[in-house]
Specification:
Chain A: It comes from Terribacillus halophilus. The structure holds 2 protein chains of 2 kinds. Chain A is mostly beta strands. Chain A has 1 helix and 5 strands. Classes of the chains: A mainly beta, B alpha/beta.
Chain lengths: 67, 336
């Protein structure tokens, strides 16, 4: 399936079914991330329960500390 | 004198320019972001700029920290002084104050006194959450900005009782984070982050409102993302919620440092215990550290000529150093 990730088409392998797995596939599982799914922000505690479906629009911003 | 601002004035208006010249901005950190922002603000004719940094110039800074020269590095000049020297040459009319200090809960409120805007250019989350607390207490807008690798992120913290604060957004101090020392950094992303922050400052000083929006850009891949974070204000946030205690400003969350007598070493204890994944860190830091030894409790390695022992709870012992400010700087550049 494919989603729109930060405005671009992004192909997902079939085993990625929720937000937690999506973050893992992007190596962001240990980062502090704000996830917006179809214009709604998903709370951190819901990442593993929140399904990701074909055609979803996802905006991801992770925090970094350098400067 | 003011022909020099003619083109800027055409854009932001006479009143905006006049406000600029009467305004004071405090810059927390004079590394890459601080250098880039300071130069833009001084060229734009800001009234007063406070330059705060605890560190001195080193050769490996010059790749991206635009105010500094090989001479500054050879002379071990503190960044806050080297920056002022260069900025004075760019615009003699700007009032500059250099502060060569570590920002902590004892001095932050005094350092930001009278500021119209605080601009974030530090390299670690603990200082950011401290500045966040102090900015909220005094109702001063605080412009978060950070970068690592080719990725940068910004968000204005508006302290207006409506938008989320940095503590609402992060929820907690990150356990570990990438730093420029461990993940690298390229100069262009610094310029993007600083450009966004300075634009936000110009807008605020010209009387415009800012949106509580988190904005991120990877300048290598071209990926851009933007999230409206208005809904993330947390009513129970310890920094801005109903029963706010400002945990970073009151010192409860502050990292402690002690010189270990007779050992030329500094012991660092984070205010809140961490739970570090040491094998993962060892892998991430492969290019930054060497002589690595590990067991289930700790990771020992050499980093910039210092032997460092890091424990899973975030404590560290840095050998070959008795200057706690320098030790803190080394710790932050690794652990973030």
């Amino acid at each position: 399936m494919s989603i729109k990730l930060n405005g671009r088409e992004h192909e997902l392998s079939a085993d990625i079914q929720n937000v937690a797995q999506l973050l893992g596939s992007l190596s962001l599982e240990n980062r502090i991330v704000i996830v917006e799914l179809n214009k709604e922000i998903i709370s951190k505690s819901a990442y593993a329960d929140q399904p990701v479906r074909d055609g979803d629009k996802v905006e991801l911003v992770h925090f970094v500390g350098g400067g | 004198m003011q022909d020099r601002y003619r083109k800027q004035e055409l854009f932001i208006g006479k009143e905006g320019q006049s406000r600029m010249e009467k305004s004071k901005i405090v810059l927390i950190g004079m590394g890459a972001l601080g250098s880039a922002s300071a130069e833009m603000l001084v060229r734009a004719g800001i009234g007063e700029l406070v330059l705060i940094d605890r560190d001195y110039v080193e050769l490996h800074n010059l790749q991206r920290q635009q105010l500094y020269t090989e001479e500054d590095a050879a002379a071990y000049l503190p960044k806050a002084s080297a920056a002022a020297k260069r900025l004075k040459a760019i615009n003699q009319h700007v009032k500059l104050q250099s502060v060569i200090e570590n920002v902590d809960h004892h001095n932050i409120e005094q350092l930001m006194e009278g500021a119209d805007v605080i601009l974030d250019a530090t390299d670690n989350f603990e200082t950011r959450l401290l500045v966040n607390d102090a900015a909220l207490k005094h109702g001063i807008p605080y412009l978060y900005g950070a970068c690592v690798g080719s990725y940068g992120v910004t968000c204005p913290i508006l302290a207006n009782g409506d938008a989320p604060c940095l503590h609402c957004l992060l929820e907690q101090l990150p356990q570990q984070s990438e730093t420029c020392d461990t993940a690298g950094i390229i100069g262009p992303i610094v310029q993007w982050v600083a450009a966004v922050q300075v634009t936000q400052a110009l807008r605020l000083l010209s009387g415009q409102k800012l949106k509580a929006e988190l904005c991120a850009f990877d300048i290598w891949t071209g990926d851009y993302s933007r999230v409206d974070v208005r809904g993330l204000r947390d009513a129970s946030c310890p920094s801005c919620g109903m029963d706010a205690v400002l945990p970073f400003l009151n010192g409860a969350e502050q990292t402690r440092l002690d010189v270990l007598c007779g050992r030329e070493a500094v012991h660092i204890r984070p205010g809140a215990k961490k739970s570090l994944n040491l094998p993962a860190l060892a892998e991430e830091w492969a290019f930054a550290v060497d002589h690595v030894t590990a067991n289930e409790h700790l990771l020992a390695f050499r980093y910039r000529e210092h032997r460092i022992v890091l424990f899973t709870d975030g404590r560290a012992i840095i050998h070959g150093i008795d200057d706690i400010v320098r030790a803190r700087s080394l710790y932050d550049s690794l652990v973030g």
